[in-house]
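Subject: sequence -> structure tokens, single chain

Hey, anyone have a minute? Need the predicted structure for the following. Not urgent.
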Amino acid sequence: MEILNKNGKIIPQLITKGDDQKPWDIAHHYVDQEVKSTGSVEYVEPNLPNQIFSAEDPGSVENKAVSALESFNENEYLKNWPKPELQTDRFVWHLNDQFSEFKKANRKLLAKIPNPTIKIGHIDTGFQPGHPALPKNLNKEKSKSFIKGEEGKQAIDIASGKSLEQDGHGTATMILLAGNSVKKSDTDDNYEGFIGAAPFAEIIPMRISETVALIQTSAFVDALEYAISEGCEVISMSMAGAPSKAWANLVNKAYEAGITVVTAAGNSWFEGAKKALPKRVLYPARWERVIAATGVACDNLPYVLEARLQKKSEGGETMQGNFGPEDVMTHALAAYTPNIIWGTMNDHGKYFRLDGGGTSSATPQIAAAAAIWLTYYRDEINEILKKYPGERWRKVEMVKNALFNSAERYSYPQYKIYLGRGILKADQALAIIPSAENLTKAKEANVNLWGILDLLGLLLRLKGDDEADKVRAEMFQTEILQQMHANPNLQKFLDYEETDIWSDTDRELMRQELLKSDTVSDKLKEYLKSE
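Reply:
Had a minute. Here:
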């Protein structure tokens, strides 16, 4: 088990004891050894394989016969969700003026700036060479894999041939973000033209996972740091999971550098084995310095079954978008999903499906809208930033102000609960001129747990004036927060806001669940046990 420092970098020292221990116990052992040998210590955490909750339910896709996908037909759309009405360019309906307005926004951008350019960091599974809709300005030379064993290689994803959304996930989300112009022969005579929301953008792919299932904590950290070093102005990551301090630190670094980070809110399932997974917004999207991408269907109702009249699955498609709690939705924005195009190289020569879904599909649309706005107002933004040296975070807040205040909020009365600030409207965002007025710096990303250590009685055992105890307290907080995502009996606490008051019953439930868990570190249990 590798141990990471507070910046997410692997500590090279070998740990000779505790290979059979739980990951967090290995981290605590490292702290103990450092205290003995040097007398000083800093926060560390295990480099965990992080379960990602942002891909389509494999069972629902795997059961579809590939032969049924050989030509486009109405049966391709997910039956449990509304499908787009007949219209011009129905194949890319989400780009149309009555939806996300990307066609109109791009026309306006090109009228002002004939040769627009911007760098977008795309953090996902990489790209599959040969797909006709790969971005025109895909920077293959700068692409990079952060997967162990692929160091120094490009972010290339190899199609397995299985009809799974996780396979080729990076290719599909990249095409939604900045896909190139396609011919009718590529779309079974359904469409000809640009297929991406921001087709002018330079895309730098970063591969952090082979499939959208597990990633190492350090992979996202290294990818985000690379994106910062390459001058990316926007980040699109269609993944979500449990947090780490290293993730928080890099999100803070990106924010201070003026980079708009858009990540998926995550997905949940209302039937089957995955029903126990979290239904609230996950990390990094949960942090205020990130734009959380939630979903809205083509009928402008939330991509959440409880928010709709229809509450039972009819077609086996059991996935929906995550949302809440209320304080998190203040930095969330909805984009159109499901039943949008999904690029693939797995269906016997077929390049697209019509059943793309998840908040994975919403994320690149929001990132594209941010890129269009930043490019359209580049000169104006730079003039403002000259007046505030060292405060590049204002650039992120200007983007958020434009996207949030132009969002459509009238289709669904309870939009604040499920959609956040509303439904993305890329062209209307261009009507909001950048301004430095009324900008508030977003709260720092962290893994603090609203006084949970005090609640569980841990602070009584942690002296607080000892540096090692302060480090230990922060490590405990991170481990507990990760447990709240992994243990279904603790996920209700993800609903809590910072101002909520926990009852004695809640406190004891949390303590007992942590004590009986086989995955909680022995060190944490030692501190949790009553005297």
